[in-house]
Structure prediction request, 442 residues.
Amino acid sequence: MFHSSLHLLGSRTVRGFTTLLLSLALGACVGMGSKTQSLAVGTAAAGVAATDAALASYNSVDPMLEQEWINAKTGDLLALPANAALEQRVLAGLASPSAAQEAQRARRKASLAARRKAARELQEAYRAFNRLGAGTFGSDTTAAFNEATEAVTSFADARGLPLGESQIPGIVGRALGEIISGLQARDIRRHNAVLAELSLQFQTLWNADLPALEAIVDGAYNMELAQSMAGLPNSAFDQAAVGKLVPEPVAGDLKLRLYRMRLLTAAAEQANAAKAPLRTTGKALGALQEAHVELAKERPSLADAIDAIDRVLELSKAAEEGTPE
Amino acid sequence: MSNDISKTELLSSITTAIQRINLRKATILQRALDEGGPDLVIEVLDQIQDLRDARFELIQRDLDTNNDGYQALAAAAKREAEAIGEDIEELESVAKVLGTVAKVVNFLGRILIRFGI
Prediction:
């Protein structure tokens, strides 16, 4: 029976049993598997968090092309000289999006869709990695064998037989649990290597995208509307309203200068605040690499691995919430 | 590498140019109206739009360059998720077979006790 079962399990189990024999012979440490499993679960959680941060970033960038267009056209309208015919012509051009504008939208959507798909698929791989790490595949086996050990040991006691032989089922039971654990640990290491490579690819692509993503943010926040408004002549402003917004005790013209400066400063600050999560997501992906590297080690440092995982989780959370690191 | 830097510089230059034009846009458009009438204003606005389109193109080309990389990554990540799923199934089946073996041993142990063999 045992032999046929082994046959069913195939070469993988045979290698496992070889490992078992070596482990028994060398007195290999029990518990290494659970440490690997714990770190795999932590690394998987970090991978899910980092890809969540990336997805949140793509969502934040998505409406920015539209925002840039609205700000640009609003700025154009504000800057138009007072001329009814001109206003009508410009407004008529805004009534429906041009073919060129539609094409730009479609290209930007397609780019972001490709990025979202990659992040989602990578996240699914990390979720699967979590299931692999969290699975307790050998627990039933061990329990059944423990019962067998007790049964045979009781029998041996009643008959006054030497305990050494009757303990064998228990030893085998624990060892079979170790086989499963060993196979699981081997799978974790193998998939950790693949996920490390995939997340490195993602980080590389992310960093390559970063200048373009930051330029998109600038276009939406710090290029059109604030500049167009700040460039309006003094006569275009409601001096009383500006006076309320600028409390400094200076003359009207100076209040306008201060107001213009604040418009531009606020736009730059908004842009920087919107760029920060993009950079933080890049850092989270970098820390994720460190977690993979630690898990790949023969004897991973729990402290170093937890430190890397914690940093990924913190950076990802900061990126998603748009808060400073 | 030097190509990347010049592309980044070009993007930065166009962005700065648009910002500067916008800061003087009201003045520029007023002069255009004074000197050429509404048609010249529309022409100036079109030229500003051309600058925006050029900026879009520069950004979008960067994104397009990386599109293939993302598509390849998505496919590889999907294969990896499937591979992990297959390994989980395999571990479950190994555990199931070993569990059956364990139950047989358990059963035999109980028979030994019951019949006092």
In short: Chain A touches chain B through 92 residues (CB under 8 Å). The CA atoms of residues 16 and 179 of chain A lie 6 Å apart. Confidence is low (pLDDT under 50) at residues 1-31 of chain A. The first helix of chain A runs from residue 2 to 9.
